[in-house]
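Listing S7. Sequence submitted for prediction.
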Amino acid sequence: MSNTVKIVIAILAFVSLNLGLFLTTDSDESPLARLTKTTTTEEPRSRSWNETEKRELNTDAVLAFNDAIVEITENTNPSVVTITTSQMVRQRMRSPLSFFFGDPRFDEEREFMRQGLGSGVIISEDGYILTNNHVIAEADEIVVQTFDGEELEAELIGTDPGTDVAVLRVNSNDLRAIPLGDSDELRVGELVLAIGSPLRAEFANTVSMGVVSAKGRADLGLSAYENYIQTDAAINPGNSGGALINMQGELIGINTAIASRTGGFQGIGFAIPMNLARDVMESIIDEGRVVRSYIGIYQGAMVDQMMAQALGLDVNYGVVVGEVVPDGPADKAGLEEGDVLLSLNGRPIRNWDQFRFAIASTDPGTEVEFEVFRDDERQTVTLVLEEQPVEEELAEAVPEDSRNELREELGFGVMNLNDSIRRQLNLNPGVEGVIVSEVDQGGRAQRQGLQRSDIIFQVQNQPVTSEDEFYSTISSLKSAGQEVVLLRVLRNGTRNVFIALQL
């Protein structure tokens, strides 16, 4: 008997039981009495189910539901693995003598091994494993531990920071791949199981159950392209990269993050839909990279009720074109700054992130149709999507030894800002500076409020436009005895932030 049939039987029995418990049995015409009346002419029954029969039905319903969940768990758990990572980190330790004498030569540089923990899912018998990019980012060594305890060294096939997906591969002849489901068919309210390794490796293959709370969650700031499944199945640190499974025992999501005020489970978890993860995985395996489309515009603003009134629009949705990338698809199609894009292929544009995701996930070369509002009139514009230029990874480390030393002291790293990154962050083409590519967890830069993707455009009132200028300026200020520097930061494209940082 299939899992689906078992669950249906259990639910029907459960509903019948509860109906009988809540309805009166005083009248022979109650629904429960009608269900229990005989249809023969021999000694008609006028009584309801007795307590023994109710208990038997209750036991059968619970056991059928329980057996279905156990069967799904037993079939899928062997496909979920624990991932441990190691990274050698160098850190300069400040000596009290350096503060007393003002001489950094008393400081010592120490090396330590930084450990990481996450989860992954075996999606093919030849060893491919899906996980999150943030689980394995910057790792020097990646080890996969299977359900039966075997430890395997993993090869990194490729990553996509834009969706937080990574693909690994291990060499083993005894792997069980999980069936892949269709996340587009997932419905809010469906029961799901989450499997992973929360908090510690000793808790590997922990199973929790919940429902699909929502679909299409975006604007969370977790990645560049967001379209998350929300679930209340318990997800904790370490579950990242693990499996979200439906009641057919199919993988329908990769658990990725939680929304929490405490850092622990609070009933709001997010998973990458399987259809998105599968597309990214196949592109990484087949092409060695992720191919995305773009139209070549910068967002001006989203249309709300007040803006609609100011523009003379009779609808309060759409996106105002801020700037058009020269020679991009939008420019070739004749779109102009100030145009309002109302719909994409007949669907209203209500959210910028969802709009970007829809464009990026469509194949290059596809013709799309926009309804455009310009000069108080609506018109239709068609354009052909083009492949987005290769994006540099924001997490890419600066390789030079001298810069690494400064980076360790500062507790963060930077990289050059280019047009590709400006497009990712919706920045105006004229924005100059360096982008914060990584921030040490718990380091002083993080404690002072510096965030990944911040744009540093001034150091101690001196403009910086490149890595060379940034590190040169920091080095010069440090050599001159400067103990604290003031960074001027652009955050979220518009907000100026001042951050004081000790050297």
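Caption to Listing S7: primary sequence and predicted structure tokens for the chain studied. The mean pLDDT is 80. The chain has 13 helices and 27 strands.
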